[in-house]
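Quick question, first post here. What does this chain look like in 3D?
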Amino acid sequence: MSMKLTRIALFIASTFLLASTLSVPANAANIKKGDVCSPIGATFKQKNSNFICTKKGSSAVWKIVKKSASPTPTITYFTMPNVIGMNLQLAQDLLQSKGSYLVDQEDALGLNRFQLVDSNWKVCRQSPKSGGKTATSAIVTLSAVKLTERCP
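> Answer (accepted):
Ran it through. Tokens below.
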């Protein structure tokens, strides 16, 4: 083994040994705020408390990390427009302008065709119906046929 590879192997082994022995004190089950720790930035969870190793003066000590309250998700709504008869691409653009990006498309004739070029299709049915209050997180389903076909 070359000298360079030996040094790399020793470095990796010493780093692993250092990381595995220094980050948590021997009496880890009884760690308290202010106990000496190493390395700075190490974290530890004990029962209902989370600790982080922080620098205090010339040493490093465990500090309790306060849990922040979970933010309440905000649900936004829009009034569902009537997109029946519209070009499928324009209907999608309109829904996206209202914040609705969860759009499912289906073949209104039940032939399971994919709408590869949305501008070549027109909307026959929509769900949810127009006029109602709809969450932007709701899935909108648009049933469409090719421009040259009639809606069922």
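The two ends are 76 Å apart (CA to CA).
The chain has two domains: 28-67, 77-146.
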